[in-house]
Specification:
This protein is an alpha+beta fold and 471 residues long. It has helices spanning 2-11, 26-42, 88-100, 125-129, 152-160, 176-190, 194-206, 247-250, 256-268, 274-281, 343-355, 378-388, 399-404, 407-420; strands spanning 14-16, 47-54, 57-68, 73-74, 81-82, 212-213, 227-228, 236-237, 252-254, 299-303, 306-315, 318-325, 330-336, 425-434, 437-446, 449-458, 463-470. It folds into two domains: 2-88 and 194-366, DD-peptidase/beta-lactamase superfamily (Beta-lactamase, 3-Layer(aba) Sandwich); 378-470, Nuclear Transport Factor 2, Chain: A (Roll). The radius of gyration is 22 Å and the shape is globular. The model is unreliable at 1-14 (pLDDT under 50).
């Protein structure tokens, strides 16, 4: 598999779509290819698909590498990728269509549709779409749980019944539960499944022929195979979460070109009412007066005269970045069939700088903001030392965490850490407490490599999560 991955990089298999406006010159296209090649050399995902909108029209779409490693299958412009949480803007758009149809209001309380939820008389649909509702994140459940199918209604009832983490509107906290509830509200209001609403009201009108709900449509040869790796080990196959977990929070797959067609429609405002686009792209203000940095299904920021709305998507075996610059008529899409490395934001940053003459802030979605920088605990150091030796003390691990550390995983960690040597920096960057579980994110740095790690310790002392990932 290593050799096939290298082959994909060396040959730089690249295909383009022909049916698009030629608004990028040869030099710009060559520069985009160079940006992609440089990022892929550092973070060799099997395939990378890129699209760009210029002057409100799809101007560029190109694919590099292999959609499947063994047997080798080149990616093409028709290759579909799971876009993860980029799907949230489509669920938000479906809600806005219901608003336009007069079937609901953003200020409706969720109790109108689901009266048994926590805060049913306080939480509004606007709170859901802006991540200011206070519902706990269903994705915080274990990876083992996500191997088993669940219904969106079960997510609504299970996580929606938990006590709110904060008073609605007073804080911002990213939660997939919000979009499970929002998706179900669309279904109740419309009388149709969410995927049917999206297809009939968004995908077909915009000519997004590749777009599907990947929880209801079985994978085909059009879909990129998903890959993971353990630190610097070889690419390995990974399965998506079971049906139901993604739903309105992250259940869509499409080509980069079709995602760019959606972006072009947002720029030109061809599908929704102007007031709907305004609502989605307006930054939410908390009751404290502080901006949340998020609209409805979209992060929002920018510099004077140049707005940017964007979202990334992480799902098992895929990473996607979607950035729209409404005032400039520009959009950038980058997606890969791998959940490792940081090629995606690096490529998006490079194309952003190429197409726009302004310096945007670093997007907040990759944890580049303010960090605590304190030494890691003895527990963290002990387990990292064990992984460096290729072994693990399983006595404090939950059964699921212990099962993750197969001989293959341990060997990959051992070989990777041996290759890297001692880090030049080893610090804690974030700590949080969720449902009686203490979580710590830590970072190890070398001159040309960064590794992010995480550990979650339950109240009973059991380690519910432990992993390292190379960036």
């Amino acid at each position: 598999m290593r050799n096939l991955l290298g082959l994909g990089l060396c040959l730089a298999i690249a295909l383009t779509t022909d049916a698009m406006a030629a608004t990028l010159d040869a030099g710009q296209k060559a520069r985009i290819r160079a940006i992609v090649a440089e990022a892929r050399a550092k973070a060799p995902a099997p395939s990378t698909s890129v699209a760009a909108v210029v002057d409100g029209e799809l101007a560029y779409a190109e694919v590099f590498g292999l959609a499947n490693l063994d047997p080798a299958r080149p990616a093409t412009p028709e290759t579909r990728y799971d876009i993860g949480s980029v799907s949230k803007q489509f669920t938000a758009a479906a809600v806005m269509l219901m608003v336009q149809d007069g079937k609901l209001s953003l200020d409706d309380k969720v109790g109108r549709f689901f009266p048994t939820l926590a805060g049913a008389d306080k939480v509004t649909i606007r709170h859901l779409l802006s991540h200011t509702a206070g519902y706990r994140n269903s994705w915080q459940d274990t990876a083992e749980a996500r191997r088993h199918s669940i219904t969106p209604q079960t997510i609504v009832e299970r996580w929606g019944a938990m006590p709110l983490a904060f008073e609605p509107g007073s804080a911002w906290d990213y939660s997939n539960t919000n979009y499970a509830i929002a998706g179900r509200i669309v279904e109740v209001a419309s009388g149709q499944p969410l995927d049917q609403v999206l297809t009939a009201r968004i995908f077909k009108p915009l000519g997004m022929t590749s777009a599907v709900d990947n929880e209801t449509v079985a994978p085909t040869a059009l879909d990129a195979t998903r890959y993971t790796r353990n630190l610097l080990g070889p690419a390995r196959l990974i399965e998506p979460a079971a049906n139901g977990w993604a739903f309105g929070a992250g259940g869509l797959s499409m080509t980069a070109g079709d995602l760019a067609r959606w972006d072009a429609s947002v720029i030109r405002r061809t599908l929704l009412a102007p007031s709907s686009y305004d609502a989605m792209m307006r930054e939410t203000t908390l009751t404290t007066g502080k901006g949340a940095g998020y609209g409805l299904g979209l992060y929002v920021d920018g510099v004077p005269g140049h707005r940017r709305v964007y979202h990334n998507g992480f799902a098992p075996g895929v990473i996607t970045e979607n950035r729209i610059y409404p005032d400039d008529g520009v959009a950038v899409v980058v997606t890969v069939n791998a959940e490792f490395g940081m090629a995606v934001p690096e490529i998006a940053d490079g194309i952003e700088k190429l197409l726009l003459p302004v310096a945007f802030p670093k997007p907040d979605t990759y944890g580049e903001g303010e960090k605590i920088a304190k030494p890691p605990s003895a527990l963290i150091r002990r387990y990292v030392a064990q992984l460096r030796a290729g072994r693990i003390d399983r006595r404090r691990l939950t059964s699921e965490t212990s099962a993750y550390f197969t001989p293959e995983v341990l060997a990959d960690y051992r070989d990777s850490l041996a290759r890297l040597g001692s880090p030049t920096q080893f610090v804690v960057v974030r700590e949080e407490r969720i449902d009686n579980t203490d979580g710590t994110v830590f970072e190890m740095n070398w001159p040309n490599q960064k590794v992010i790690g995480a550990i979650r310790v339950r109240a009973d002392g059991k380690i519910a999560d432990l992993w390292l990932m190379a960036f």
